[in-house]
Structures are given as structure tokens and as C-alpha cells.
Specification:
Elements (H helix, E strand, L loop, with lengths): L25 H13 L9 E6 L4 E2 L8 E7 L5 H18 L3 E5 L3 E2 L6 E2 L2 E10 L18 H4 L6 H8 L10 E6 L2 E7 L3 H7 L2 H19 L2 E6 L13 E11 L3
Antiparallel strand pairs: 1-3, 2-5, 3-7, 4-7, 6-7, 8-9, 9-11, 10-11
The structure holds flavin mononucleotide.
The site of flavin mononucleotide (FMN) has 20 residues, from β4 and α6.
């Protein structure tokens, strides 16, 4: 089960882009690695691995330098990008919980001397992390630059679940999610992109949906229920607004049912 202490961090986390370049103490790094090993995947049969890099091993066009980077390598099976977002967001929240800084890096790649494939798995994305050189938390939800609730949802009666989705981080803060309601459960859909934006953000915004889903999952648990997922669009009659496409249907049930 995902550590529920992390739930509070949904409401105060932020991207940290300035770091103390001193490497973290070995015991702190070991603790982060142990947490990463305990992260819960969204989809059980997708193989993945984490690897760790330091600043010299990363190529990044933007000037974000951190002492550490965690990279996710994965099998490229259906929904692997959502799975990647769901997994690494647990680590983003854990780092925030430990008052360490982190930032998703969609444009950074391992440098030439580091393989883009490992044990048959492809590099997907990385998070920068380390001791922060700027505040690591936001004070209140108003400090988040996000769309309004009515822009991302037409659901009533699930305010806490929608709010957890609303505050999720996304590539270029694009917030490509929409939460709708059907008799069969909540639907999380993703904004359709034109060819140009699709080339730039098509992969990233599937990762974004995985991040939002992790937040939704944690909010469901926090309110004493558990989420069950269906990735098949046939199970989502209606409920998807124009310009969006189905990603996942979420039903909730009592925890020990
Ligand atoms: C998949 C993904 C890729 C991202 N890539 C970058 C990046 O390459 N560089 C960067 O500075 N921020 C990156 N971000 C961070 C977003 O810009 C940030 O999450 C968003 O603006 C919201 O701000 P917040 O995280 O402080 O709440 C990325 C975020 C996500 C989820």
C-alpha cells in the first residue's frame, strides 16, 4: 500500500529548481532508494527499473542542475507512460515529505555514456532531486498556479478527489486532465493534442495522467476507500467532453470488500 503520510504533500509540494550541489548523505540516499523500491505500480505486469545519476551524467537543455537524478526505465507496454507517472509521483511526494527538493524533467536525457536501454527496458523520464536551495513547500492551495475546478471537472460530490487531481504537476503545467462522472464511476480523460503539440507533449501528457491518477488514488484512500481501475474505453459509456479522450475509469469500493 502507498504510504498515506504522503497524502498531505499533495497540498504543499512544488517543483524545486535550485539545489545545494553537495551530494546527499549516503544514508539519506539509501532511504530514498529504499522508498523507490517500495513504490506501487499502477499496472503489475509492466517491468521497470530505477537508476540513479549525478549531474555529470545528465544532458539537459534547461539550466536545472541537481546533485542527483532518478531515472525510470520501463517496458513499452500499453499504458506504460501512465504507469511511469504513477510510480515517480510517489517518489516526488516522498522527497517533498522528507523536505528534499525534486523536479520532473521531461526534456533531460542521460548523457551519451549512459545507455538509453537497460536490461531490455527503455529510458522514460527522470526526476532531479537533492537538498533544496529555495523553499520546498507551498503554504496553501492558493499558491498553486492551476486551472479552476470547473475547467477540469463536471463532477459533484467528490470535491476532495477532484482537488487532488487539480493540484497535480504536469509538463509545462499543461494540466491535460478532465474528471467526469458516469454511473459506472469516475472517468479521467486526457486533452487531445493537434499534430504539432502531439509531437511535443503526446508522451508527456500520458505521464501527466498517471501523476493525476496517483493523486486521485491517494485521496480515495485518505477517505477510507480504494480505487479499482479499468483501462478499456468500452467500459466508459459517455462522460467524455469534446476534445478529450478516455484514459481510465475509476470505481471506488470499501477497503476490505
Ligand atoms: C512530465 C513532466 C515533465 C516536466 N518537465 C520539466 C522540465 O523539463 N523542466 C522543468 O523545469 N520542469 C518540468 N516539469 C515541471 C512542471 O513545469 C511543473 O510541475 C508545473 O509547472 C507545475 O508546477 P509545480 O510542480 O511547482 O506545482 C515537468 C513536469 C512534469 C509532470
Amino acid at each position: 500500500m502507498i504510504n498515506q503520510q504522503l497524502y498531505q504533500n499533495i497540498y504543499k509540494r512544488k517543483s524545486v529548481r535550485r539545489y545545494d550541489m553537495t551530494p546527499l548523505h549516503e544514508s539519506v540516499l539509501m532511504d530514498v532508494k529504499a522508498f523507490a523500491e517500495s513504490a506501487v505500480p499502477l499496472i503489475d505486469d509492466i517491468k521497470y527499473e530505477f537508476t540513479y545519476l549525478s549531474a555529470g551524467d545528465v544532458k539537459n537543455l534547461l539550466p536545472i542542475k541537481a546533485p542527483h537524478y532518478i531515472c525510470l526505465y520501463s517496458e513499452a507496454k500499453p499504458n506504460y507512460l501512465m504507469n511511469a507517472g504513477y510510480l515517480l509521483q510517489q517518489i516526488d511526494l516522498y522527497l517533498s515529505h522528507k523536505a528534499l527538493g525534486s523536479c520532473w524533467l521531461g526534456v533531460a536525457k542521460p548523457s551519451k555514456q549512459v545507455a538509453l536501454q537497460q536490461n531490455g527496458l527503455d529510458f522514460v523520464i527522470m526526476l532531479a532531486f537533492g537538498a533544496p536551495n529555495e523553499p520546498v513547500h507551498r503554504e496553501k492551495p492558493d499558491d498553486f498556479r492551476r486551472k479552476m475546478t470547473h475547467e477540469i471537472s463536471n463532477v459533484s460530490g467528490h470535491d476532495a478527489l477532484v482537488e487532488a487531481v487539480r493540484l497535480a504537476p504536469s509538463a509545462s503545467n499543461s494540466q491535460p486532465w478532465f474528471v467526469s462522472e458516469t454511473p459506472e464511476g469516475l472517468i479521467l480523460s486526457r486533452e487531445k493534442l493537434n499534430i504539432l503539440r502531439g509531437a511535443l507533449y503526446g508522451k508527456m501528457n500520458q505521464i501527466d495522467i498517471g501523476i493525476a491518477l496517483l493523486h486521485l488514488d491517494m485521496a480515495v484512500r485518505h477517505h477510507g476507500r480504494q480505487a479499482i481501475y479499468s483501462f478499456s474505453p468500452q467500459n466508459a459509456p459517455g462522460g467524455i467532453p469534446l476534445g478529450y479522450e478516455f484514459m481510465v475509469r475509476v470505481e471506488t469500493k470499501a477497503i476490505d470488500e
